[in-house]
Design a protein that fits this description.
With 269 residues, the protein is α/β, with parallel strands linked by helices. It contains twelve helices and nine strands. The chain has one domain (3-263): Aldolase class I (TIM Barrel). Strand 4, helix 7 (139-145) and strand 5 (149-150) form a beta-alpha-beta unit.
Length: 269
């Protein structure tokens, strides 16, 4: 059983939902990333999505685009990201880490080399924004061979037939994008999210994480009533952007916001 499945199963047994923060690896400095990852876990994160910086992050809004630019100014590479995860694993063997990014760096490295290096570093799952399951016949078997979960996106406009297809090819969880647009672009519509998540779960038993539009404790609690996981990114990355020279302040503000989300989610009946 994968580390992701173990964590999500344990939360389900405790009637809790997963809190899944996203940060971009290497932002604002590569040597701060591992410490920030530990900060997220200490504040209540159950799983971490670690962004692989890319020069053209097409699904992301200005906040995460700029985070990628900051990381790339330090020449943060995919191998650097593996090094960060490996260092994180020296102290934390239980929190799953999913690499989130775009396909080009994987293609440049080679899928076989990528899968081997990811597993050796301690990565648990992979979410490539620009890789639909219809085009993943080469990568997904390699991920499975190396005990890595393949996470795919479901959009508000995705049809029921395609939802079924995506869920069949996914493992760990599926990521439901709660708004039409890029990251950080809009507030979520609770009723629309509830309807879509219910449709996903009606015919599939894979856990559903919801991201985009989650900005505070109230919206985190709102989404946790509907889904198995709450994914939060832009608001955390914005804290980093506003305090690029002050690591203690970044850690303090990340911890305060994430802890407030965790508390709000845990207080639900």
């Amino acid at each position: 059983m994968s580390r992701i499945k173990q964590v999500l199963n344990a939360l389900q047994q405790d009637n809790k939902k997963a809190l899944i923060p996203y940060i971009t690896g290497g932002d604002p400095r590569p040597d701060w990333t591992v410490e920030l990852m530990h900060t997220l876990v200490d504040a209540g994160a159950d799983l971490i999505e670690l962004g692989v910086p890319f020069s053209d992050p097409m699904a992301d809004g200005p906040v995460i685009q700029l985070a990628c630019e900051r990381a790339l100014l330090h020449h943060t590479s995919l191998r650097d990201i593996f090094g960060m995860v490996k260092t994180f694993r020296e102290k934390d063997q239980s929190t799953p880490v999913v690499l989130m990014g775009y396909l080009n760096p994987l293609e440049k490295m080679g899928y076989q080399v990528f899968a081997e290096a990811a597993r050796e570093a301690g990565v648990d799952g992979v979410l490539m924004v620009d890789l639909p399951p219809e085009e993943a016949d080469t990568l997904v078997p390699l991920l499975k061979e190396h005990a890595l979960d393949a996470v795919f996106l479901i959009a508000p406009t995705t049809t029921e037939e395609r939802i079924r297809h995506i869920c069949e090819h996914s493992s760990g969880y599926v990521y439901y994008v709660s708004v039409k647009g890029v990251t950080g672009s809009a507030s979520l519509d609770e009723q629309e999210v509830a309807t879509k998540v219910a449709a996903i779960k009606a015919r599939n038993d894979i856990p559903v994480g919801v991201g985009f539009g989650i900005r505070d404790a109230a919206s985190a609690a709102q989404v946790s009533r509907l889904a198995d996981g709450v994914i939060v990114g832009s608001v955390l990355v914005n804290i980093i952007a506003e305090n690029q020279e002050d690591l203690p302040k970044i850690k303090s503000e990340l911890s305060a916001l994430l802890s407030s989300m965790r508390n709000a989610m845990d207080q639900l009946d």
